[in-house]
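Feature request, filed as a ticket because there's no other form

It would be nice if the structure record came with a short human-readable summary line next to the tokens. Right now we just get the raw output. Example of a typical job, pasted below so the devs can see what we mean:
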Amino acid sequence: MNIFVSYAREDIAHAKMVDRELTDKGYKVFLDTKEIKSGDEFPSRITYAIIECDAFIFLVSEHSLKESCWALKELQIANDQKKFVLPINISDKKIKDLPSLPPSIKGLNIEEESKSLEHLLKAYPPPQNSWLRLQGNSGGI
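Raw output as currently delivered:
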């Protein structure tokens, strides 16, 4: 299973933790700092990686929800591609206290408290269960 991790630059430490955790469990993870090399065309490389992913993790924080943040563009691409989106709240605030997601993002229901990465890994086992393939947007977790 290919997983794309979307985050704001200010949240790189959290993104690396998610990458390490998922990679250790056997998932193939796309993290821009790891996959995009100098000279690559950033926007097209990101778009292609989102199109090719099976699941899309969006690290929700005050930073990733800023209008100017590239992570929101990635989230829009994932939504347009009907990817399975797993939002993870990494802020120290409750979801209800964060700026809201843009109205153009439909079908993404974030619960009051995002589920932990450990819980998500239990819900979506590592790739040795080859029958598991996430398709479409389930409307939340």
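Something like this underneath would help us a lot:
Strands lie at 2-6, 28-30, 55-60, 84-89.
The first strand starts at residue 2 and ends at 6.
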